[in-house]
């Protein structure tokens, strides 16, 4: 995955590991990491406090502004941005996430994993008698929104953060390869190479050092 072009956003329900995985991914790729909740806390104080004194609607307004800036900056330079679980509730945020330069990784966990991670959680939306039930309802309700903006989905249940990061890097590498191939094919087409580099019998006619030895009739065979 060439870090120079990586623009990655992590979305998903609370406790999926967006903040944890995002930080490790930024380190791995050597590009800046931004956690929009941390930016909110730095500017406005603890999230639970914002919910308590100003209400969820005001929190969502503050969140939208912070996310808008973080995603704009992501277009100026590579980076990893972890959003809060509810950021995708905003249609403007969802529209920004549709930018083709941005890869949106939806981090998924199952109910058992969430249950193991929610003990002692300070998330105001899960400060309920039954936080796991509340989490399930939130995750289910938001699922269509996560799916509507996700470039790919990565499972984070039952695996340590390092494994999840590897999985994200693998997905990003695959996406990059597909993009490079599409670019190559488009350039090839534009250059007027009507057979796309293949002869009628399917043999590659463009020089390619990776499979030269496998070519039937090759001098080296
Ligand atoms: N893959 C993982 N395996 C085990 N624990 C994890 C993993 N990812 C995150 N955690 C833990 O789960 C909790 C929630 O992680 P966090 O990164 O804050 O999630 P999010 O930002 O999605 O709400 C934290 O205590 C974190 O240390
Ligand atoms: O799901 C949500 O609506 C929220 C998730 C939290 O972030 P994490 O998803 O990082 O826990 C935080 O933004 C706030 O408590 C609201
Ligand atoms: Mg987080």
Automatic annotation (TrEMBL):
Residues 187-221 are annotated as: Disordered. Pfam families: SKI. Keywords: Amino-acid biosynthesis, Aromatic amino acid biosynthesis, ATP-binding, Cytoplasm, Kinase, Magnesium, Metal-binding, Nucleotide-binding, Transferase. Its EC number is 2.7.1.71. GO terms for molecular function: kinase activity. Binds 1 Mg(2+) ion per subunit. Residues 208-221 have a biased composition (Acidic residues). ATP binds at residues 15-20, 123. It catalyses: shikimate + ATP = 3-phosphoshikimate + ADP + H(+). Monomer. Belongs to the shikimate kinase family. HAMAP family: Shikimate_kinase. This is Shikimate kinase. It comes from Brevibacterium gallinarum. The gene is aroK.
């Amino acid at each position: 995955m060439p870090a120079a072009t990586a623009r990655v956003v992590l979305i998903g329900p609370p406790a999926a590991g967006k903040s944890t995985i995002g930080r490790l991914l930024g380190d791995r790729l050597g590009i800046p990491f931004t956690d929009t909740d941390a930016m909110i806390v730095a500017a406005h104080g603890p999230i639970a406090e914002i919910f308590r004194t100003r209400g969820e609607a005001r929190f969502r307004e503050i969140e939208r502004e912070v996310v808008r800036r973080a995603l704009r900056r992501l277009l100026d330079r590579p980076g990893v941005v972890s959003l809060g679980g509810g950021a995708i509730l905003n249609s403007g945020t969802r529209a920004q996430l549709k930018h083709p330069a941005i890869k949106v990784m939806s981090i998924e966990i199952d109910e058992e994993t969430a249950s193991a991670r929610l003990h002692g959680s300070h998330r105001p939306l899960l400060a309920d008698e039954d936080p796991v039930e509340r989490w399930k309802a939130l995750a289910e309700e938001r699922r269509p929104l996560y799916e509507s903006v996700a470039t790919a989905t990565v499972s984070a249940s039952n695996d340590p953060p390092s494994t999840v990061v590897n999985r994200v890097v693998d997905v990003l590498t695959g996406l990059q390869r597909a993009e490079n191939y599409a670019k190559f094919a488009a350039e090839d087409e534009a250059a007027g190479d009507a057979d796309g580099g293949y002869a009628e019998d399917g043999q590659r006619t463009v020089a390619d050092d990776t499979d030269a030895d496998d070519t039937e009739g090759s001098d080296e065979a």
